[in-house]
Each structure stands twice: as C-alpha cells, then as structure tokens.
Design goal:
Chains A, B: Its EC number is 4.2.1.96. Two copies of one chain form a homodimer. Chain A has three helices and four strands. Chain A is of the alpha+beta class. The A-B interface holds A 41-42, 45, 49, 52, 55-56, 61-68 and B 41-42, 45, 49, 52, 55-56, 61-68.
C-alpha cells in the first residue's frame, strides 16, 4: 500500500520536480501535472508507450490526455489519495525519457 | 483535405452513431465523444494502441483521456473544424475493436 509523501520527501524529492523540472501542483488536489510536447503523434505515442509499460510494471498508472503531439500527464496515487513515492518515480521516468518538454 | 459531413452523410452515417452506438455530440463543437471502459489498464492500453495505429495510418488522431481502465475519446477533424468521414471511420473502428463500452 502506497503512503503519502512525508515532509522530508516533499522537500527532497517533490520540490525539485516543481522548481526545476516544470511539474506543477494540480489545483485542489495532492497531484502533479506537466504537459509534454513532441514532434508528432509518432513521437508522442512512442513515449506514452514507454510510460505505460513502466507504469504497468509497478502497477501505477497516469491520468493523461493526448491530442496529436501533446500529452498532459497527471500523477497521483489512488491508494493514499495523494502523492506517493510512486508518483515521484514515474514523473522522473517521464522526464528522463522525453526529448522535449 | 477533409471536408465536413454534408446533410445526407449526417443522416446516414452520424445519426446511427448517436442513436445506436452511444456516441454523443460535444457541447459547442462539431465533434463526437464516447467513454470506453475496460477490465483493466492492460485491456484499455491494448485497445488504445489499436486505435492509435489505425489513426496514424490515415493521419487522423483522437483527442483522448485515459485513467486506468477508462478512455474518453473525442473525434473531430482539425482540417475542416468539424466532423468529417474520417471521424465516422475512426468512431466505427473504436466500436468494432472494443469488447465493452
């Protein structure tokens, strides 16, 4: 069962995503979001597949909207109704596997 | 270049999607939407990949939102700012390739 990030984790792991990696908090939720833009649908879909496989592997799935080359991704953890270490892991995976942001 | 559905096409092709296949018009847009629900993410993502490949083949891409086993799909055609025969084709493909709706 995933648990919510504690204060130390928010400072050391969440803050860098918000301050350096352009993730932002979702209004009214303990969740983070970011929009990724690619060259075309081929590139966007290839990346989404990588994220889908990585998420499935740890049983953690995104909320995401896609139209053509744009993907809006939100991470939050249903189990604990907020951000957990799984969200940090997947957000970092998103950043590490995309070429553009 | 895709062109908007004419009156005859709306009657013969769009109407059945709205009246029988549970698609609905998007408020304020000449676009159709439908929510598909699957057993789990594996099933949802498998289906999304089939739709992605079919769309890419005819260079026509959905607007869609996914969270876990649920996929909300919208079809409209950017070129003509409204519904074209490509949307009818892809909506029908969506219906023909899903097990649940």
């Amino acid at each position: 069962m995933a648990v919510k990030l504690n204060e130390e984790e928010r400072e050391s792991k969440l803050k860098p995503l918000l301050q350096e990696a352009k993730w932002s908090m979702v209004d009214g939720r303990d969740a983070i979001k970011k929009t990724f833009t690619f060259t075309d649908f081929n590139q966007a879909w290839g990346w989404m597949n990588r994220v889908a496989l990585a998420g499935e592997k740890i049983d953690h799935h995104p909320e995401w909207f896609n139209v053509y080359n744009r993907v809006e991704v939100t991470w939050s953890t249903h189990d604990c109704s907020g951000l957990s270490l799984k969200d940090i892991k997947m957000a970092t995976f998103c950043d590490n596997t995309c070429k553009t942001s």
